[in-house]
Amino acid sequence: MKLSDKVQLCNLSPMRKFHPYAVDAVKRGRKIYHLNIGQPDIETPPAFFNAIRNFEQDVLEYAPSPGIPKLIHEIQKYYANIGIDYQQDEILITTGGSEALQMLMLSILDNGSEVIIPEPFYPNYNTFVRSAGGVICPLTTTPEEGYHYADREKIEALINENTRAIMFTNPGNPTGAVLTHDELRMLADIAKEHDLYLIGDEVYREFVYGGEPLMSIGQIAGIEDNAIIIDSVSKRFSACGARIGTIISKNKALMQQLLKFCQARLSVATLDQIASAALYSVDGSYFDAVREEYKLRRDTCVKKLHDIPGVVCSEPKGAFYLMAKLPVDSADNFQKWLLTDFEDNGETVMFAPGDGFYATPGKGSNEIRIAYVLKQEKLERAMDLLALGIKAYNARNN
Amino acid sequence: MKLSDKVQLCNLSPMRKFHPYAVDAVKRGRKIYHLNIGQPDIETPPAFFNAIRNFEQDVLEYAPSPGIPKLIHEIQKYYANIGIDYQQDEILITTGGSEALQMLMLSILDNGSEVIIPEPFYPNYNTFVRSAGGVICPLTTTPEEGYHYADREKIEALINENTRAIMFTNPGNPTGAVLTHDELRMLADIAKEHDLYLIGDEVYREFVYGGEPLMSIGQIAGIEDNAIIIDSVSKRFSACGARIGTIISKNKALMQQLLKFCQARLSVATLDQIASAALYSVDGSYFDAVREEYKLRRDTCVKKLHDIPGVVCSEPKGAFYLMAKLPVDSADNFQKWLLTDFEDNGETVMFAPGDGFYATPGKGSNEIRIAYVLKQEKLERAMDLLALGIKAYNARNN
To answer: Residue B322's domain spans which residues?
Structure first.
């Protein structure tokens, strides 16, 4: 039986590539510190669980296809607080930001359509784009330049008749890069001039560590038809398992098409929507505390990395990831070796090798992504293991 | 900005087409009996809600991408009970049967690929097939023949080089048709001979009213690589709002591709999976009672329909839908009129007009789908309103 061409161009997750080696290492008694996946350890606000416990209907019915009105209303209020007014029909609830991206790509891409995305990028973008028949046109950045991508000339050089959109995660996964207001306005200007969708994956919006507050693409006037926001409760409220996301746009023609997908899959999980609505009652002090915690962790990571000779790493400005270039021949080989041959007091460490975050072949092979989602003490130990590992790895053949 | 060609070939839901007229009728004080949507009124087993209330972790984490092992294990046990042994990696948990269908179509269809589906069919199939670049090749059936579709000659006449799969809902939505064991074996034989996927959407498996028990395509030996089962807790346990489905196949190459989509969307909602695992502890008496209730309702519908002069309707053998041909010029016009001009003691009725269930233009225009998901007394009244409506509608210009 035939498989589709498009699915064969998709990849399995690079974050899970070394899972079998990890399982084997654990069997041999190793303790592994996980810096490889973005699962926060922050407590989910109890309001979520309380709302679910208080559900009192006898029949767990479908929710309305566009989302339950209460959750949409809470999201409207949240955006009104940052100065953006959205109507109810400009917000569709999705099963995580993931479904929002899948529906969006199917709605805007034909075979051969291109989406400009700064690389390194969130690897699952590739599956969403490829499965819709499109291709990622990478805007290559480098560790030496701090993964800076807002370069008008470079971006415009990539635009051609097949280009449909410019997409970015802001704050960035995997780099932690945050666009300045001027940079975002410049991107908006390009999108408007070339009649492109401008897709801002802003699921890490709360996690910015200093400097000016994050600007959302929804805050820029004049690009109402271009701008599409992807958002989610997963990271904001440490509620990844709820799978509640949203896609937001004032582009009525696009929203009408997206509604077809919402109706085709009937609805998003009812209880998770009710509980997610309750999350929006969390007050600002929750975010202040979480932000402060992540900032400390970021500082720890950056300091430890700067102490390792040969590492290239800029200070990330947001999210809870960073990319670093290591003084090793191959991050893939190094990670495998850390799981098969290395230990320090019975412990080792995992990260995500960098090549899976690039579309350009050969790029990122000595880079890694670190997700700083461990508590301070564990994080310090994990970073020390990384330093010890690099030293031992490079000393093997000396 | 451009929209994809494929999304523009998808449709909004025909079940929701008359929603604005219904809203208006309610504003004018009308009471509407809803036979138009398949939302069961049966109580969700309390085991679901209890499992959620007992969740005690502080962080609502992502579940594993293929699904939580406990739920997969419960599904393995359920299938073992009907004589089918599935390994853990032959079952993937999805966000409803809907996501299973979306992932499947993206995995097996290229632009121009064809899927043979008996019409009338579940309208959302069109969105899943179209959004993957494919097209439904309809196997047309008629009310006069009880929507019978298992005809080898007719099916083989539709197979060409673009055909990738034969797909059907069994028991059928919208027709309630149930394949006999011999018919299913014949379909399996065709799929094997022509190297096609055989996709059995078996979400209504428990709802068969008499005769031999339903045969699953998983029970047929020799088509392990062809057979794909779509299943869900939505109808089985009246848990539509949980959005928990599954895709099951022994075709390892296919499952490996599907896993790419599972990983790309990270996971299915954690709590809904935990709670759905608890549903499988419900004992057989639950299904017996539910089945008996639906059978009574079916009998009521069929009896009432047979009493209306000019209606063509066979007795459906399963699910909780039936299709009927009405003695009206247009089911669409009739439905609209029922909402705008008709009332009996302030009440009216809604069904789903038939044309949305057909791919062939012009087909089904005087047919309707009835979902018998109302309690006996309400159902009788709804059917009486239908009879009164037909009479009054046809008397308008006399």
So the answer is: 5-43+285-395
- Structural domain includes residue B76: yes
Residues 32-71 of chain A whose Cβ lies under 8 A from any Cβ of chain B: 39-44, 48-49, 52-53, 55, 58-63, 65
Sorting pLDDT into bands at 50, 70 and 90, what band is B181? very high
> In this complex, is the C-beta atom of B264 within 8 Å of any C-beta atom belonging to chain A?
yes
Mutate to test the interface with A, among B5, B23, B50, B59 (most CBs of A within 10 A): B59
Strands, sheet with A352-353, edge to edge from the N-terminal-most edge strand: A321-325, A367-371, A352-353
Residue A284: is its pLDDT beyond 90?
Answer: no
> What tokens appear for A319 in the block?
């999210």
Does position B211 have pLDDT exceeding 80, yes or no?
no
What does chain B come to in residues?
Answer: 398
Residue B165: strand pairing partners: B115, B197
| Cα–Cα distance for residue pair A7/A128, rounded to 1 Å | 10
Give domain status of residue B138, yes or no: yes
B9: which residues sit within 8 A by CB, 6+ positions away? B130
Residue of A nearest to B112 (CA): A4
pLDDT at A398: 61
Q: Is residue A32 located within the same domain as residue A79?
A: no
- Answer yes or no: do B39 and A53 touch at CB < 8 A: no
DSSP B239: -
Q: What count of CB pairs under 8 Å joins A to B?
A: 236
CA distance B50 to A52: 11
Domain match, A169 and A199 both: yes
Residue B252 in contact with partner chain A when CB distance is under 8 A: no
Reported ipTM: the value is 0.96
**In the predicted model, what is the mean pLDDT of chain A?**
96
Helix, strand, coil percent content, chain A, rounded in steps of 5: 45, 15, 40
